Each structure stands twice: as C-alpha cells, then as structure tokens.
Amino acid sequence: MFVFRAFRSAVRAASGLVFPSLCLGCGGPLADAAPICASCVRMLPRPAPEALAGQLLARDCAEPLARRSVALWRFDPGGTVQRVQHALKYGRRPSLGIPLGRLLGDATQRHARGWAPDVVCPVPLAPIRELERGYNQSAGLASGAADALACETEDLLVRTRSTRTQTTLAFSERWQNVAGAFARSPEARPLAGVRVLLVDDVVTTGATLLAAAQPLLDAGAEVTVAALAMADG
C-alpha cells in the first residue's frame, strides 16, 4: 500500500510538471496551489461589505453575529466563482480549500473590525455525504482560514441527522430542512466565551450557517460566520 501511494504521488507530481494547473478564470498557468491567478482574484465579483449581514438580519439573526459576518465573493452562476466552488466541492480537489480559506481568513480579518477568533470550525457534512465525496469541502476552507488568522481549527459540531441537499429546495423548505440538524460535538471543548469562526462554502438563505451556529451560541460561544461565496437568497 505504501509503495502504491508513493507511486501515485510521484505520478501526480510528474503530471503537474507536464500539465501545469490552469487558472479557472483566464485559463493561464498557475504559479501556486490556488485555483485562480492573482489577476482573476482581483476581478471576481464581491458583495457589498454589509450584504451578508443584511441578509442574515432579515432572517432574525442576532445582530453581533450578523454584523461581523463575511462572504468573500458573490456567487455568479456559470462564472468563475461557480467554477471555483464546484472544483472544490465536486471536483475531488480538497487541496483547493487551503489557499481559498486563506483568502477567506484575510477577508474576515479586514471585515470583522478587530474581532479575532480563538478557533475556526467547519460546517460538518452528513457522514454519508462525506463518505460519498471523500472529504468535507468546508474543512479545507477552515484550515486555510485558521492559518491566515493564526489560530487553530476544530470540529466543534456534528450532524444529528442527514438532510436533503439545499440546492433543490424553496426558501421555506431550506429552513425546515436544517432545523435541529446540528449539535455540539461531545468531544468539543467548553465554549463559554470562546470566539468561533464558523465556515462554509456558499451561503444562500443563511439557513445552514445559522442552524449550525445555534448549538455554539447555546454553549456560550461568540460566533461569527464566513462563507467563500454569497448567493442571492
């Protein structure tokens, strides 16, 4: 098994030399592990600084949580942001999460007005979905964000039940789908007064992020949410 893994790693490394990774925006060669070049990053659509806060407040979100929330990009169906998100989530490329998470961590640092997390927590997938996909795309984002913010990442949450994919559901159905679907992990540290950055890949209505934040808030944590992209809810 070790020999096979070493051979597979060598093949992948050699393939990278012969077929360098290409930017998902302009198609040019990439110099690092990020899926998009620096020029394309600067051109990606960004939401207004208070856009996500306004959307969450409209869902009766607590004001402190909403005010510090951040989305790095605006989701652009058929565009570069969607290609990046789909490569991370469905393209079996979990390594993309680290460089993307660093960008998200930098955005959080700029936007949160002096607030800094003690720990970064990914929104967990249902076990069967993570088994099917092979990884949780939000875990890589959380690791990258924690790296940028000089803190640690920890799985503070568990899924209490499986849920339907949110992409096919109407607004009201999304909230019913995820209500009570998350709980604090039995192995989590005491959270009273702990500042937690909760990370997911895309936020639409905010239902998933807010449902996941609730057990952390109930445990006394100070929570801020961050997403790679914000879709129109």
TrEMBL record:
SUPFAM superfamilies: PRTase-like
Name assigned to this protein: Phosphoribosyltransferase domain-containing protein
A Pfam short name: Pribosyltran
Protein family: Belongs to the ComF/GntX family.
Coiled-coil region: none
Organism for this UniProt entry: Rubricoccus marinus
Residue ranges of domain Phosphoribosyltransferase in the record: 138-228
Superkingdom of the organism of origin: Bacteria
InterPro entries: ComF/GntX_DNA_util-trans, PRTase-like, PRTase_dom
